[in-house]
Amino acid sequence: MAWFQLNAGGNPTNPSHYNSVTTPSCSGSTKICAVNATDNGSGQPDLTDSLKNEMIVALQNNSTSSNVRLRSTP
Fold first, then answer.
1. Pseudo-torsion of CA 63, 42, 7, 34, nearest 10°?
2. pLDDT tens for residues 10-31?
3. Total number of domains constituting the chain
4. HEC profile for 18-52?
5. Which residues contact 44 (CB under 8 A, 6 or more apart)?
6. Is 0.85 surpassed by the pTM of this model?
7. Short-list 60, 23, 20, 26, CA closest to 43
8. DSSP SS3 for 60
9. Cβ(72)–Cβ(31) below 8 Å
10. Domain assignment of residue 27, given as a range
11. Is residue 56 left, alpha or beta, with left meaning phi > 0 and alpha meaning psi from -120 to 50?
């Protein structure tokens, strides 16, 4: 698994809107910043249903999780 950071203003459900990073740079708690996921074979995160559910819970709780990091800016 690897970290993928969402591009500014990107759609968090679109794998092509992420870039692979060693360590995500995230600060805040209201928007998706980065996900820890398996590479889908194209250098993008495999956004499984389980990961999407974890993203939803993180947003609802305004709290990061083991596979989801949040930020304040879009």
1. 10
2. 999 999 999 999 999 999 999 9
3. 1
4. EEEECCCCCCCCCEEEEEEECECCCCCECCCHHHH
5. 4, 15, 16, 18
6. yes
7. 20
8. helix
9. yes
10. 2-71
11. alpha
